[in-house]
Amino acid sequence: MARGTGQPLHEALSDRELEVMCLIASGKTVSQIAELLSLSDKTISTYRARILEKMHMKTNAGLTYYAIQNKLVS
Predict the structure, then answer these.
(1) 3, 5, 32, 53: which has the highest count of C-beta atoms within 10 A?
(2) Predicted model pTM
(3) Count of alpha carbons within 13 Å of 30, Cβ hemisphere only?
């Protein structure tokens, strides 16, 4: 839960950030996500860094665990 709001952490993400987070959680690499979304690797890496910061996490494993627990990926 986001601090003081009672809302899930992922609700603080933009639509694109949520999309990237779900792709990371589904096991896609930065390069695969970049190709899929027609963006550069650097752009996806920037999204990843912002997602980790907003979600108060440090690793893709943490994002994956969160996404599974919140039924954002199957």
Answers:
(1) 32
(2) 0.89
(3) 11
pLDDT-derived band at 3, boundaries 50, 70, 90: low
Cα(52)–Cα(59) distance, integer angstroms: 7
Round to whole Å and give the CA distance between 73 and 42.
24
Rounded distance, CA 43 to CA 4, Å? 30
Q: CA dihedral defined by 8, 74, 62, 16, rounded to 10 degrees? A: -60
The string of pLDDT tens digits covering residues 58-69 is: 999 999 999 999
Structure tokens at 28: 């896609």
**Tokens 């930065």 identify what position?**
30
**Which ranges of 1-74 does DSSP label H, i.e. alpha helix?**
15-25, 30-37, 41-55, 60-69
Q: Which two tokens stand for residue 7?
A: 């809302």
